[in-house]
Each structure stands twice: as C-alpha cells, then as structure tokens.
Amino acid sequence: MIHRVRTTAGRLDAATPSQRDRAVDALRAFAILGVVLGHWLVTALVADGGALRTASPLRDMPWLAPISWAFQTLAVFFLVGGHVATKSYASAQARGTTYGQWLLTRLSRLFKPVAAVLVLWTVVAAGLLATGTGLDTVHTLLKLALSPLWFLLVFAALTAATPLLTRLNPLWPLTVVLHVDLIRFGLGGPSWLGWVNLAAGWLVPYTLGAAWTRGELDRRRAGWILLTGGAVVTAVLVVWAGYPASMVGVPGPAVSNLNPPTLAAVTFGLAQCGLALLLRAPLRRVMRRPTAWAAVALVNLSAMTVFLWHQTALMATTAVGLTAGRLPGLHTAPDGLAWVAVRVAWLPVFALALMVCWAAFHGYERGGYEKGGRPRPARGSRVVRVQRRPKTARDGAARHA
Questions:
Q1: What is the C-alpha separation between 120 and 106, in angstroms, rounded?
Q2: 195 or 48: whose pLDDT is higher?
Q3: 388 belongs to a structural domain
Q4: Taken in order 328, 330, 332, 337, is the CA torsion positive or negative?
Q5: Angle at 88 between CA 83 and CA 90, to 5 degrees
C-alpha cells in the first residue's frame, strides 16, 4: 500500500510542469483546510429539547480566541486568488482569449459544485418540514449548510473585476475600511454601512495578490512589514479600541470581526498575508517531496467540494449521532475544556463524513477539467492541438539531460 502511494505520488510529481509555483497551491490548500478545521472546532449544534441550535465555545470560553487566529485563513485564500487570477488574465490576454471566455473558465469550477449543494439541501429542507421538524431547526441547518456561499459570491465578484484591479494599490480599499469603521464606531453611524467592508475588506488581500503578480512583494522585507505591521495594529485595535479578540463570528455579541469584516479583521489578514509570503521559499522546498506535493494537489483538485460540503459533513454526523442520544462534544453545550477535548476526538469522524460527500459530489467540480487535470477550454474558444511525432531514443535522452 505504501509503495503504491509513493509510486502514484512520484508520477504526479513528474507530470507537474517545472515552472509551476507549488507554494501557491500549498498556501491555497492550507487556507481551505484552515477554514474547515476552524468551523469544525468552533461550531456546535446543541440538542435543546426537540430542536437544534448553534453555539460556540468562544462565547463561554473567550480565552480560546487564539483558535480563531490559527484557523481563520480567508485572507490567505483571497491573496492567492488575486495572484492566480491576475496572472491567469495576463496569460489569457497574451493568447488572445477574450474576457468572457476567460471569466467563464474561471467561474465554472466555482459554481458547478454549488448546484449540487442547493439541490440536495432543497430536498432535505422540504423533507424535514414535511416530517414536522421545527422551522427554527431547519433554519439553523440551512444557514450552516449555505453559509459558505457568501464567500463564493464575493470571490466571484472580485474575479470578474480582475481587469480593473490589476493595478489597484491595496491602500485604497484599506482606507475605505478604515473610514467605514470610523463612521460606524467612532461617529455612531448606521450599522448597515459596515457591509461596504464586505467588498473593501476582501479587496485588500486580493489586490495584494495582484501586487505579488507584479513582483512588488518578492522581497522578504515586504512579508515582514505586513506580518509585524498587521499584528501590531490588530493588537492595538483589540486591546485599546474595543474590537473583539475572536476573528470569527461568535453568537451573542453585537459586533463581529467577520460579519461584516472590520478593520481588525483586515489588519489581521495583512499579518496572515505577510506570513504566507515569508513561507513561500520553505514551502517550495517541502513541495519537492512527491508525497507532500501529491497531498496538496489532491486538496486543490477538490478545494470547492471540500469547502462546500464540510458543514454538511458536520451536520450529517450530528444527525446520525442523535440516534444514540446526546453525545458529548457533539450535541452538548460547549462550556468547558472537556467539551473541547472531546470535539477534537470527533474531527476524524467529521473527516470521514466529508470523504463520503467528496466521493459523491467531487465529479461536479472536476467537470470543468480534462483528463490529466488540464482546464477544459471555455465554449467558443479556439484550441490548437499539436500533432506529436513519435519519440526517439535521442528525444528521451534530451528530455532527461
């Protein structure tokens, strides 16, 4: 078994183009897995009578906020997304691909898996209501299952605007976030104004990704400035300006750093982006190992499937567990360290449920790819196929020289 895994990993490693920056794929994989593990650790479905309600250990144990610092990795995903999209758009322009064809190719992999999620949860919701399940419980489940979609809508909007963002300085959207928070919290402005930051806040790491493509972040100095500056400003905002310490939403408090993004969430994201940039060289060295690269490649090929179905895996495990009664760490209130320890023990079960979801639905994501992992051309685009001549011994020697 181990020999087979190593052989497969070696083949994948050999098939990967030498010019591919594997650190980019590694950062994307870590960002996706960080979000998944974070949700599994801080999202609890508590069985309260005949209903289910959401709860979070961060509410009763706020000193666990550092968990959210480690697993709220969306800024890194937007950083990588901005880098990859701007690089891809430049390549498309060089090939003569139209904007529409490029955008269709970029968005097809994002939204094809969404259809399966929407169809399944429409059927599940209808079935639960038909069998007498309370409206509050159905609302709770739907909110958890469909909450990842807000992220995709924002990401899709920024992807569509990529041609306009390739030269945008990240300081401009950062300035917008700063002024929105000043008006909201300093001048008593309306709370709805915060939703401006839903676009402006994630524009900051996305445009940092574009700056990465332009070569403006190649020096390690840039990473250190972002890491130290972002961390210091975030600490000041939390300690002296009253921003929440948790970087994810917590049920109860009136202000959340994530819904909508606050200045603290954005500066924290800058620190994460700085760390990601500093890790590029070490990650490139690690990704030379075939087994490490194979694991990262597998996550990237299934990134949207993992992201869209991880909450469903959590809820499926919770529902099946109810047949055995109220299980600790699964249906009980997250009010102590014992709950945290048991919840960690449940993580492999959630992962197993997610593997079942992956086996059932990953085909919707891979539908936009040809055999071998190459993106399938957009409809209407021209593809030039080169007729390969038979290989000779001289060709093989030159290829391995």
A1: 24
A2: 195
A3: no
A4: positive
A5: 100
Measured CA to CA, the distance from residue 217 to residue 209 in angstroms comes to 9
pLDDT tens-digit series, residues 342-382: 999 999 999 999 999 999 998 887 654 444 334 444 444 44
The amino acid at residue 82 is G
Asked if residues 261 and 254 have their Cβ atoms less than 8 Å apart, the reply is no
Q: DSSP state, 19?
A: T
Residue type, 137: T
pLDDT of residue 9: 79
Domain with 273 in it: 23-375
Residue 365: what pLDDT? 79
Distances (CA, A) of 106 to 82, 111, 142, 159, 183: 12, 10, 27, 8, 36
Task: Say if residue 168's pLDDT is above 70.
Answer: yes
Amino acid of residue 292: A
Calpha distance 303→322 (Å, rounded)? 29
Place of tokens 């739907």: 142
As a whole number, the mean pLDDT across the chain is 87
| Cis peptide leading into residue 251 (ω within 30°) | no
54 forms beta bridges with 45
**Nearest 5°: phi and psi at 21?**
-85, 100
Is the separation of the CB atoms in 337 and 67 below 8 Å? no
For residue 99, the tally of other CB atoms under 10 A from its CB is 13
pLDDT at 322: 87
Within a domain: residue 200?
yes
Considering the domain boundaries, does residue 389 fall inside one? no
The amino acid present at 294, given as its one-letter code, is: A
Q: What is the pLDDT of residues 78-130, one digit of tens each?
A: 999 999 999 999 999 999 999 999 999 988 878 888 989 999 999 999 999 99
**In degrees, to the nearest 5, what angle opens at C-alpha 303 toward C-alphas 78 and 279?**
50
Q: Does residue 321 form part of some domain?
A: yes
Which 3 state secondary structure label does DSSP give 54?
Answer: strand
pTM of the model: 0.88
Q: What is the number of alpha carbons within 13 Å of residue 236 lying toward its C-beta?
A: 8
Exposure on the CB side of residue 19, measured as CA atoms within 13 A: 0
Q: Is 169 helix (H, G, I), strand (E, B) or coil?
A: coil
**Residue scoring higher pLDDT (394 or 272):** 272
How many domains are contained in the chain? 1
For residue 201, how many other CB atoms are within 10 A of its CB? Answer: 29
